[in-house]
Amino acid sequence: MKKVLFIMPPIGGWATHGVIKAPNQYYAQLAAYVRQKQSGEPFVVDARALDLTYDGIKAKIKDIGPDLVVLGDILHSTGGLAVIWHFNKIAQAVKEVSPHSKVAVGGLWYSALYRETLEENPAIDFVLIGEGEQTLDELLRKLDDAKGADYSRIAGLASRKAGQVAVGPHRELIKDIDVLPLPAYDLFPMEKYVAHTYWTNFCELFTSRGCPGGCSFCYEWSQYDPRFPQDFVSWRSHSAGRIVEELELLTKKFGVKTVVFQDDAFNVNYDMVKDVCNGILEKGIKINWVILGRADDWSRQEDLIPLMKQAGMFMGLVGIEVSDDAELSRIGKGVTVSQIKKTVDALRRNNIATIGTFMIGFEDDTEEAVKKRFSFADQVDPDIFALQFVTPVPGSPLWKKVVKEGLLDPAKISLKAWDFQHPVVPTKHLSVEEVGRLGSWCMREFFSRPHRIHRIMAGNYSDLAKLCVKDYMANISKFEAAATKGDLYV
């Protein structure tokens, strides 16, 4: 059986998030699948959690002697796309100490740019395009063949053939993702994970795939086959029973106390959310949780919020992004201003803290437009203001547009800054430097309101929510340093 090694580089995290370390969900799911199919023996080296240096990683590679090393991620919550630079560096390290080992990458960035990845990175042998489980299984079985095997017919795989990039046919989506085994958390140092510096015994979950929204800027575009963009908007979710089963495993076997459901739209299905909450309560699962949700879904599920609170939800994220319905429509958000306001108000009435995401750096942004957008966010008044700079991702409608209009040259991208907390593209009216300055101004303005901070810290919110606010405020200077000086944290 082939040895498969999954490596997480020794990286930092978003400037606003303090100390953040979570098990790589891409690795956890792939490892579980190949173990179930008995096509590979999986190993995980999480250098971030174990505080390993690159020399330490090289020693682990030599010790394990992997046949295949897999690199990549499906969540941008670690550090946006800046992690890609680190994965590329790990690929080079693998070839230095274990030349016989093959390297496969997948997930964010790589899926959308599979051809460019192989053309520009000789240390990378394969790209898993789109969902990687079945493709990785087939690749491992093919690795058993004689040297010089032809991989070009494996669906969902990009490889090299006679020195040229060869791409297999489209890999069909897994329609029922409940067929996948529970993530292989036993391969990870679960006691090491933390978020927002203070949330210990932490884990991120990814319980659905795709999104019914398809916003023009979404990071998820980059992890699907660009030949079939409809894959991204083909939303599929685990069943409530499967989600509750995973929560029970995390809490009772691994001692996890706090989770963030990183699905872009966890609460699409009313009945599923209701059944998850009831399942948590019926099984006596003690867990604190956060979800990311769309305002249109939140506003249709107001009656569920007390039940969600009872089941352990202490914080909810809602995308504000821009300031009016016309702008929301233009970026493909599919929600309205009234739905956003209604969501924040409903969560606050139930003592659930809110995170409002906010974006600047769209093509037509002016200083006046940004300040108008901030005024709207200030009026909506979430408890945490999570500003991100517009960062085009491969495969997205936004990427195609800015490349076509000359606002972005893919050949000149500095991946280390591609983390959503560094301005990376100008607008038609603002330079990159001006976008960064305005972002810093917005962050400081929002968190300088004494009444807001008092409401949060003296209110009936969970202590975890208050610690999160504390961490954000403590790191505003780091955000400013990234936005205006180019300081790197990922």
TrEMBL record:
PROSITE patterns in UniProt: B12_BINDING (PS51332), RADICAL_SAM (PS51918)
Domain B12-binding residue range list: 8-150
InterPro entries named in the record: BchE-like, Cobalamin-bd, Elp3/MiaA/NifB-like_rSAM, Methyltransferase_Class_B, rSAM, rSAM_horseshoe, rSAM_sf
Pfam families: B12-binding, Radical_SAM
The keyword S-adenosyl-L-methionine belongs to this UniProt entry's keyword annotation: yes
Keywords: Iron, Iron-sulfur, Metal-binding, S-adenosyl-L-methionine
Alphabetical list of Gene3D superfamilies matching this protein: Cobalamin-binding domain, tm_1862 like domain
One GO CC term, this protein: cytosol
The protein's required cofactors: [4Fe-4S] cluster
GO MF annotation terms: 4 iron, 4 sulfur cluster binding; catalytic activity; cobalamin binding; metal ion binding
Transmembrane portions of the chain: none
Boundaries of every Radical SAM core domain copy: 196-433
Protein name according to UniProt: Uncharacterized protein
Organism: Velamenicoccus archaeovorus
